[in-house]
Amino acid sequence: MSDLHLANSNLSKLPPSAWGHPDRHYAVGPEATHAAGRGPGEQDAGRWGEALEKASPGIREVVERTYKQWNTILRDYLRNETALRLSVGGEAQAVPVRVVDGMPRPFAEVMRGLEGLERLLLNRPFLVEAASGTRFMAEQSDMVPRRWHDKAGPSGREEIIRVQHTAEAWLKELDEAKAVDQIIGINEDVLGAYFFYVPEIRLYWVVIGITAMALGVSVEAMTIVVLAHELAHAYSHLGRDIDNEKWLTEKFAAADLNIVEGLAQFYTSVLCRRLEQRMPAAIHAYKELLKKQSGPYRAHLGWVDDNERGGEIIRVSMIECRSLGITDSAKFLEAIEKYRQGIRGRKKPRPDTPTLNGFGKEAGDE
Q1: Is the bond preceding 199 in cis, omega lying within 30 degrees of 0?
Q2: Residues 317 and 336: beta-carbon distance below 8 Å
Q3: 329 and which of 50, 152, 243, 256 could share a cystine (Cβ 3.0–4.6 Å)?
Q4: Cβ partners under 8 Å of residue 100, min gap 6
């Protein structure tokens, strides 16, 4: 049975907790991908895209440049961490990455409820700076005029405090609208998405830009986080293990959100930490995003402790999940605990000892 036939038949049978449930915008076949992120969300994306360009011109170009710069590096890291490969012998599985306009449907629905707040939301860091800056100025408002006299400017303490209170009031109203919480609280991949029936990764530059500015992190760092997450989906699904096996698409689609998103988040964290010396902003963006995320996007946090050989534990648990077609998150947690007990206490291999994650650079990077 082909993947496309599965998309048309078996998806409708999946429970709502399944990662590939048909209500999710990325669970579509090739014939529908051109419509993904368009339709109801297209007008919203245009308006927000214009607001983004006014607030910070060139965001799409930043997303494009960043993914091209880090794509091969992130894939190399994933191969080493997962021991999975998209190219084996003469067979290669391409998973292209595209930077696209538009918004996925779940995101567009949230943004329509925030109409009129575009400029405030995108420039929230300026309001934070205005509130803290005027608070500092008010504290210095007695000393500065004595020192600089007329050159201290036209505003006295009371006027400065009024601006401070105005900035704080705007922030309060913006925060009570819970704009950032609504955006990041969507339990579906909306900054980017892995269309697993195609297969293809899409990066939504408007959504990445909005989220980065709302969190006060760089667009480049947010792009790396999103790309790492979606590549982790692709490798966990299509990557070939030592037995040349991949995760059957039907079982991958049926797996619980906590498994599939948990794995992607776990490896995103690992990759961002590996990049810490070269790109420290990436781990910062990951942590800031994680603070606002919930549900399956935090499922990985209790899997392993920092003092354990977490990479090995999760890797072998993932391989078992794939090979046995595990879809229940409770069963996956049992596998993790089993391997935690088995691996705990074993000596770490010497640096020159070959391990499962000792693959070198893969030929024909996608």
Answers
A1: yes
A2: yes
A3: 256
A4: 37, 202, 203, 204, 205
Phi-psi region of 149 (alpha: psi -120 to 50; beta: other; left: phi over 0): left
What would the two tokens of residue 92 be? 């290669």
CA distances in angstroms from 243 to 74, 175, 293, 314, 348, listed in the order given:
23, 51, 35, 18, 24
Return all residues near 346 (Cβ < 8 A) that are at least 6 apart: 309
Are the beta carbons of 336 and 313 closer than 8 angstroms? yes
Residue 322 burial by Cβ neighbours in a 10 Å radius (0-12, 13-18, 19+): buried
Backbone angles phi, psi at 142, to 5 degrees: -85, -35
Domain ranges of the chain: 3-115+182-343, 125-169
Tokens read off for 146:
């004595």
Output DSSP code: residue 11: G
Q: What is the pTM of this model?
A: 0.82
For 71-127, how does the pLDDT look when each residue is reduced to its tens digit (9 = 90+)?
999 999 999 999 999 987 778 899 999 999 888 888 888 888 887 787 787 788 889
- Check if the beta carbon of residue 259 is closer than 8 Å to that of residue 17: no
* pLDDT tens-digit map of 220-264: 999 999 999 999 999 999 999 999 999 999 999 999 999 999 999
* C-alpha gyration radius of the chain: 23
List residues bridging with 200 in a β-sheet. 195
CB-side neighbour CA atoms (13 Å) of 4: 6
30, 197 Cβ separation under 8 angstroms: yes
Place of tokens 């760089």: 218
Our CA angle for 301, 303, 305, nearest 5°, is 85
Question: Long-range contacts of range 290-295, CB-CB < 8 Å, 24 or more positions apart?
Answer: 290/265, 292/180, 292/181, 292/184, 292/185, 292/215, 293/184, 293/185, 294/185, 294/187, 295/187, 295/257, 295/258
| Residue 315 to residue 83: CA distance in whole angstroms | 8
* Dist CA 145 CA 326 (whole Å): 71
Residue linked to tokens 């419509």: 35
